[in-house]
Amino acid sequence: MRPGDRWTLAGARWSRGGGDGAFTVTDPATGETVGEVPVGTAVDVAAAVAAATRAAPGWAATAPAERGAALHGAASAVERHADDLAALVTAEMGKPADDALGGVRAGIGTLRQYAELGPLHGGRSLQGGWSAADFMAREPLGLVAIITPWNDPVAIACGLIGAAVVTGNTVVHKPSERTPHTGALLTELLAGSLPAGVLNMVSGDGTTGEALAGHPDLDAIAHVGSTRTGRRVAELAAASGAKTLLENGGADPLIVDADVDPAWAAEQAATGCFANAGQICTSVERIYVHGAVAKDFVAALTARAQALRPGPGDDPSTELGPLVDERHRSQVHEQVEKAVADGARLRAGGRIPDGPGCFYPATVLDYCTDHMAVMAEETFGPVAPVRAVASFEEALDRANRSRYGLAATVLTRDMAHAQRAWRTLKAGTVKINAVFGGAPGGAATPRRASGRGFGYGPELLDEMTAVKVVHLETDVS
Questions:
Q1: Strands 220-224 and 243-247
Q2: What is the DSSP string of 329-383?
Q3: Which of 1-15, 23-37, 120-134 has the highest mean pLDDT?
Q4: 210 pLDDT more than 90
Q5: Tell me, what's the pLDDT at 2?
Q6: Residue-wise pLDDT tens digits, 245-274
Q7: CATH at 299
Q8: 149/287 same-domain check
Q9: Is residue 197 assigned to a domain?
C-alpha cells in the first residue's frame, strides 16, 4: 500500500502538491528507488494551515470522550495496516523487519493510551470565599505543527499526533524527507478517523519544514530530530511566539562500574550502540568503563560487534541493517576516521564495506578522548567509543562534560553509586542497569542542547494544552 500522488492533505482534499522540485527516496539496503516525492511549497503549507485553522473551533468544542473514541478508531486503522507500514519503514530507512513492526505496534499502543487518558485530562480547582471559586482549566493550544524524524517514524508520530488531537488541537504533520511514504500512509490512516481538517500534512524537504515552522499562525511546534534543525525551529518559533517541544540530538553516556560482570556489561553496551544501527535518539554514544574491568569489557564488546550479522531489513537473519543513506554513512565514517587519526584504537569495524547499500559495520574504538567528535557529538551510527577511567567519580564527571542532556545509563551493583548517579547526571532520563526499557507511559524531558518539554507519557498531554485560570464570583448583589 503506497500513497501514490497523495502527498499533501489540506482538510478533506488530498493532492500531489509541490512545485517543480522533487527528490528520490532509495532503499538503503539495495540502492533501488522507492519513489519520487514532490517538495511541498509555501502554498501547500498555507493550504494545510488554513484547513487546520478552520477545523480548530469545532474540534476544540468536541467532547473529550468523542475525541478519544476517534483516536481509538485511528489506532484500529493503523493496526489493520501494520504490516504495510512496517514494510515501508524497512524500505525507506533500512530497519530490520521485526524492529520496524515493533515500532508500529508501539505507535498503536501509544494511540490507545492517549485515547483513554485524553478524556480524563483536566485541571484543578481552589476554594476561595463561599460565593467564589478559582479553577485552572486545560484548553487546547490551537494549531500544532508536528515535524517527525525518520529513525522511528511511526511510533514518534503516533505519540505526538495522538496527544495533540485528543486534547483538542488541530495538526499539520510534516514527515521526514527520508521516510515520506511511511509518513503519508500513516497520516492517511489517522486522518480517516478524524473530522476533515483536524490532521493535515505536507511532504517535502528542509525548505518545506522551514516554511511550516515559520508560519505565523502556529500556536505550537513539536520537533524530533537533529540539534541543528531544532535550533532553527526554536528561532522561527521565537519570532511567531509559538510554543516549542523539541527533542534534539544527544551524546548519551554509558558508565560501567568496577563491580559488574564485563561480559554482561558488553552485551548492554552492544544493544545500546548497535540496535537500529545506532540510529536511536537514546543510543549509547560514549562509554566510560572503570579501568579494573576495561580490558575484559572491550574484548567482549569487540567479539559481539564482530559477530553481528549485517544485511537488508527484510532478511529475518539480519541483526544490523544499513544506515539510512549515503550522506549519513559518510558522516559516521568521517567521525570514526578522525578519531583513529587522533589516537583512538580501532578494535572492530571502521571500514566501509564493498557492495550496494549504505551498510556500516559495528565499530568499537578504545583509547578515545573527550575532545574527539565521536565522543563529544552525536554519531548516530553503530559506533562504540570507549574511554577507561580510574574511578566512578571520574566517570560521572566526564559524563556531565557535555552540552547535551537527553539520557544516560549506569551499570553498577553498588546502590549508593546508583543513587549518586541519578542525582548527579545532567540528563532528562537516567537508566540504571539497562540501556533500554522503562514502564509503559513513561515520559522523558531532554535538557540543554537536547531540547525542551516532555515527550511521551501522560505529561505530553500537559504540553499540548494551555492553562486558563478562572476566578468566578457568584454573588453579584
A1: parallel
A2: HHHHHHHHHHHHHTT-EEEE--SPPSSSS-----EEEES--TTSHHHHS---SSE
A3: 23-37
A4: yes
A5: 59
A6: 999 999 999 999 999 999 999 999 999 999
A7: 3.40.309.10
A8: no
A9: yes
402 and 345 in one domain?
A: yes
In terms of domains, do 151 and 52 share one?
A: yes
Q: What is the rounded distance in angstroms from the CA atom of residue 153 to the CA atom of residue 210?
A: 19
Which cell numbers hold the place of 343? 589516537
Show which residues are catalytic. Answer: 174, 247, 281, 378
Q: What is the pTM of this model?
A: 0.96
In this prediction, residue 130 carries a pLDDT of 83
Same domain, 153 and 276: no
Cβ 164 vs Cβ 222: under 8 Å: yes
The reply to whether 262 falls in a domain is yes
Same domain? 232 vs 360 = no
CA distance 232 to 245: 13
Q: Judge if 222 and 105 occupy the same domain.
A: yes
Grid cell at residue 180: 515520506
Task: Give pLDDT tens digits for 32-71.
Answer: 999 999 999 999 999 999 999 999 999 999 999 999 999 9
Q: 357 is in which domain, residue-wise? A: 253-432
User: Is 249:378 a contact under the CB 8 Å cutoff?
Assistant: yes
